[in-house]
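Suppose you are handed a protein chain with no further information: no name, no annotation, nothing but its sequence. What can you learn? This example shows the usual starting point.
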Amino acid sequence: MTGKKLELYIHIPFCVRKCKYCDFLSAPAEEYIRDMYIRQLIEEISVQSQFYTDYVVSTIFFGGGTPSILKSVHVTNIMSAIYANWTVAANAEISLEANPGTLSQERLMNYRTAGINRLSIGLQSANNSELKVLGRIHTFEDFLESYETARNAGFDNINVDLISGVPGQTLTSWKNTVKRTAMLKPEHISAYSLIIEEGTEFHELYSSGEGKKLLPDEDTERDMYHETAGILSTYGYRRYEISNYAREGYECRHNTGYWTGEEYLGLGLGASSYTMGRRFHVDNDLNNYLHMDMHKDITPLYEDIQELTERDRISEFMILGLRMTKGVSAEEFAERFNRNMMEMFYYEFDKHVRSGLLEILPPYVRLTEKGLDLANVVMQDFV
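A reasonable first move is to predict its three-dimensional structure. Written in structure tokens, the prediction is:
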């Protein structure tokens, strides 16, 4: 099957309850709103496909929100619309984000039948007190039940999301979370540091001087970061990106495509895209989305359309590529931009090699262990 590769991101902006740290475009909604949304999303899938007839869909990712809050018939109908309107690679990776407490054996079996072949389950912590602080709807025991149910339903490619830096979290409790997760042998583990975002309940609670005292200090957070890599290495996980670890052959293809500059199309409320040299995103207004006649004119749906210059694309190639532990390839750079990466960034590379933050292993230039700690220091030179 030939054609340019395209990744599809499907945004499901609904959840049972907004988590206290979440700044994603998501909120609870009544069932009839969800039904209306899915109908519009299917219309968008149909209309958009006519602009991508020379593309082959390599990955599909249902994100949110909580996609697993949907009735399984919704996921089935979305997948049917994709297969009816798009050319999908036979080996496409098709992921769905799920939260413990929203899964059942029947629902998971239906997801499998619809074509979902990878689950990403949001555990975040194995400590129930920390889950309560985060505002999660589940306990660790709920997660274990959901995880076992997913395995019994036939899912053999599962990611588990974890969050470090939670208010009140200690290095010991974080190590316990990492170990208890690794012992379950998921194929992939994502371990992110908590970021306090404006507009969230956490920002009100923890952005002040007194509130910050309730968060792990910088030294503890740094220890958490290093302990994660060490622990997961002993369980057979390889870090392939700053915050992501996988067993051999189970790196997330969708996210890897994002970090290496693959084109992707976001479908659904607020979803972002990078295709045909442009970045843009869908309108964030749910009411506008639900009532738009997409078959009449889909263009008002999109906002902040940005035509990328070559310099923009080079900058993104370097910044996103350096997130990968293998680094950026001079060969791929030359193929994509017809320029010599080593010459173009001679001074930047020399500066950070001498400071011990970068190393050159032809054809790759990559962050060192020290550089992974100080990635932002390096990446700002490529903006």
